[in-house]
Structures are given as C-alpha cells and as structure tokens.
Amino acid sequence: MKLNEKDLAQKILSEEEILAQKEELRLKKEQELADSLAKLPKGFRFESIRKTDTSQPPIVIDIENRLDSIKEFKLSDVAQSIEYIKMQNLPDSSIVNKINYKYYMTDKNIVASNLYGIHLFTKKGEFKNTIIKNQLSGVKYKEDQNQVLIYYSEFSNIGGSPNVWSRGDQLYYNYKNTNTGQNYIMEVDCSKDLINAQYQFNPENPLAVSGAGKVLVDLNRGQNKPFKAPYPNGMSSFTPQYNYEQIGVFSPDRNTYFSRRSRKGNMLEIFNTQGDTLAEFTKFERLVNFKPRLIRGFDYGTQYEKAGNYYFRSDYNDTIFKVIPPNILKPVYVIKLGQHKVSKQDASHPKFDLKGKIVPNQWADGNNYIFIGLIMDDNYCPNAIKRKSIKLLYALYSKKNKQLHFVKSDPYNYDNPILENDIDGGFSVWPSSYMINREGNIMVSLLGKDIKEKVASDEFKNSTAPAANKEKLIQLAKNCSDTDQVLMLVK
Predict the structure, then answer these.
(1) Over residues 141-158, mean pLDDT
(2) Does residue 32 or residue 445 have the better pLDDT?
(3) In what order do the strands lie in the sheet with 182-189?
C-alpha cells in the first residue's frame, strides 16, 4: 500500500519531531554537565572509573570456542537492499577529485571528506557547501599505489582532518595550520548557509581560520607551535584509508573532549574545553624492560563514533569501551581469545613465535551484526603475506541471536572478497569501523571507474543476482565519468 501525500507529510513530521525530542534531551543533559563542571574548584580531577553496568553487562564475544563454527555468508544474509548515491561534482574544479571520499551522515546531510577538504551534500547527493578546502604542500597522492606521500622538507597543511562528527545540525572537525601551529575543534551550524566562510589563507591575517565555523576548543590552549618534522629531510607514506580510521580528537558535547595521544602513556584523557584534565585512564598494556632494538607492532586498536558516542579498544586489549564524560569508561564488548591471546610484551618481540595467537584487526559495529577481522599465526606484514604464514579470519556476531560464526573463506587468500554481493552482483562488502552510519547502514566509497570496471568483469557477468538489480548498476556505470564519486549504501 502506498502512502498518500498527507500520510507521507505526517510521517516526515513525526520523524522530525523525534529528532527534535532527542536533541532537546541531549541539550538538557549537556547543560546539566556544564552546570556541574562550573561548580568544581579549579584543578579538580574526577576519580577515573572503569564501570560495568550490572543491568547491561558487557557482551562477551567468544572467539576461542567458536573457531570451528564456520558458515557460508553472502551479502543478502546481512542486508536487504543497495542504494547508490551519485555525488554532484564540486563547483571548484581546482580541488583534486581522484581520492575516494570518507563519508559521514548527519540527520539531514551527507558529509564527504578526504585529503583535500570537507564538503556538505544533501541526502540525495546534491552539493551544498564546502566546509574547508585544504591547502597542502609537500604532499603527493600516488593513485596507482593508493599511497599518500609526505615530504617533510616541503610539508605544510592548512585544513581539516577527514574525521568529522555531529550533534543535531552542528558539525565538528579538527582544523590545523602547520605554519602557525593552530589546532582547533571547529563547530559549524549546517542549518545556515555558509556564505561568510573564508577558504583561502590570508598572509595579512595568518591566524584567521580558512574554513567554515567557529572555534569550539583551542587544543593548544593559546600556545601555538608551528609544525617541526622529526626528520626534516625524511618522508612518510600511508593509505587514505589508514588516515580515515584515525580519530585524533573527539568532543561528545560542548563541555569536554577526549585525546588518545597521551604524553604520559595513558590510554585516554578527558579534558574540559579550557584544557584542564578531568580524568586519566592508565594504559596497562605496556612494554616493560623491553630489550630488543626492533619492535614488532601490528595491533593498533579500534576507535569509532556511534550515535554521538565514542568507543575504543587500545592495542592488545580485549575490551571495547564506551566513554561517558567526565570520568567513566564503560566496557561494552569483550573479545574472548583465551589461549590465543597475546600480550603486547610478547607480540612486540621480533623473535616471539605467534603461531596459534590471534590479534583483532578489524571491527565494525552495525545495527544487527558486528563485523570482526582477525589476524592469526604471524605478524601482519609484507613478508608474512609473501610466505603465506599469516591467516586472515572474518567473523560475524549476531546481536539478535548472540552467536558468532566465522565466514567461510580461504584464510591465505589475502585478496579474497568477503560477503559476495548476491543482491546486484556488484561489489563485495566488508565494512570499516568508520563506514557505518547512524542508521546502521554500511557505506562504501566508489569512483565511477570502479563501477565501470565492475560491470565489465566476468565476476559481474556471471553473477546470479537478480537481473533487474544488475541492470540498475549497468545503467549507473553508463552515466558515470571515471572521476565521479558515488556513495554505495548497503541497507
């Protein structure tokens, strides 16, 4: 039965009312915390609490005893449909458009970011505004290798981190200027037109922010220090996807912010917006009397935002925490590895035998499933891949059934597509932590050339997915240029 226009209008109104009620409740709680913090004496610190809620104990995901529980999965087992949103090309043709976007969805908008800036679109992919246009030097993207190269002798960056987050109509991003040393959390009101945004660096006013919004937090507390490379003539490289996974700073409200980059070795520190420390959480996974000159490392932990909350797992830890400001870490998930668990001390030693040991590698928290990637038997490095001494395992934890099953796949086929797409015959899917939106849908970033190559492949032609769905992807490929950005929503 189709909804008539009146029923549809009422449905939309109801959804808007629900959003308004949620925002009103959030603002009330935010104000209550602000009032509480305002009453504290200067220099006050809270007791740091790692608190388990007895009414909602952490969910234990038993890896150790489920290794033999292997099941064949396809995309239709975890999703019902796929939507493709073709993003309108940016009006500023000077912005490089050959790197996939990192997508983030607010209640009303799509935010697309990458190395070159942050942009705002409607839910239909129509361009609205550029939040910030990054100004880079000493940075090169090698498309054939999917690597970003930074040459420190020439490096400078004035712009925003690809990581963004939101509350209601307010969007937040981390602004940095390596020349002046500025480091801010910026707040942008997306309900208004961004007509006064300044997108070019002004040498006559070097401290002016060259992007939209206002400063919410000065992370330097007024003590700006221009960037100084540890190796002035050196360089570094990373994939854009690695950069997208990083959340260097996060503010859950207008009263506090978090940092994982502690000089004291803590795994998390919570600050008020003036930079005063409210709580510190000790990191227990540390190296003690470590003598080898070389350090082996391949577990970098997990961090992600979901519904306005910050979740994380520190390296070689087995617990996913939810951060509750100003001073609580709530265990939400525990990854039970048992005899397969390895300590940071042992894993870091280049001569320690990792045979039989398992380290979490990927984690994506969806509505109905948690998608887990695991490393087994060796260090995740090019040499281990070359000699095929490492296993890559994938598992799905059903939140409804409280069960874990490993996905049937070849653990030594490192390019093996996981969750074959039997919905439209297109791209196989295994989500990243940062590419699940607040509605629980998986987001996949594509370029037009990716879609063209897919529909021309034998894999697509031989797919038994419904012909009507395949035809829609074929038509999309015909209507895309190679550099068009497309958001694939797996629902």
Answers:
(1) 94
(2) 445
(3) 135-137, 156-167, 170-177, 182-189, 214-218
Rounded Cα distance, 63 and 67, in Å: 6
In angstroms and rounded to an integer, the radius of gyration of the C-alpha atoms of the chain is 23
Has this prediction a pTM greater than 0.70? yes
**Element housing 471 (H / E):** helix 467-478
Cβ–Cβ < 8 Å for 131, 194: yes
Report the distance separating Cα 167 and Cα 24, nearest Å: 11
Answer yes or no: are the C-beta atoms of 265 and 286 closer than 8 Å.
yes
Q: Which of 210, 153, 157, 155 is nearest to 186 (CA)?
A: 210
Average pLDDT across the chain, whole number? 92
Nearest partner of 59 among 380, 470, 379, 369, judged by Cα: 369
pLDDT digits (tens, 9 = 90+) for 45-88: 899 998 788 888 999 999 999 999 999 999 999 999 999 999 99
Which residue, 317, 298, 436, is CA-closest to 361? 298
Give the C-alpha separation, 465 to 444, whole Å: 19
3-class SS string, 345-399: HHHHCCCCCCCCCEEEEEEEECCCEEEEEEEECCCCCHHHHHCCCCEEEEEEEEC
Q: What tens digit of pLDDT does each residue of 446-462 get?
A: 999 999 999 999 999 99
Element (DSSP H or E) covering residue 159: strand 156-167
Q: Is the alpha carbon torsion for 107, 113, 118, 124 positive or negative?
A: negative
Helix (H) or strand (E) holding 154: none
Strand order in the sheet with 147-151: 139-142, 147-151, 235-238
**CB 173 within 8 Å of CB 131:** yes
Mean pLDDT along residues 477-487: 97
Beta bridge mates, 183: 176
DSSP conformational letter for 244: H
pLDDT at 18: 77
Q: How far apart, in whole angstroms, are the C-alpha atoms of residue 129 and residue 169?
A: 14
The pLDDT of residue 1? 41
Could you give the CA distance from residue 295 to residue 274 in angstroms, rounded to a whole number? 37
**336 close to 63: Cβ distance less than 8 angstroms:** yes
Comparing 355 with 232, which gets the higher pLDDT?
Answer: 355
Distance of alpha carbon 134 from alpha carbon 176, whole angstroms: 10
Checking if the pLDDT of 199 tops 90, the result is no
CA dihedral sign of residues 130, 132, 137, 142: negative
Q: Convert 211-229 to b/e letters by CB count within 10 Å (16 or more is b).
A: bbbeebbbbeeeeeeeeeb
> Residue 14 class from Cβ within 10 Å (0-12 exposed, 13-18 middle, 19+ buried)?
exposed
Q: What is the pLDDT of residues 376-418, one digit of tens each?
A: 999 999 999 999 999 999 999 999 999 999 999 999 999 988 9
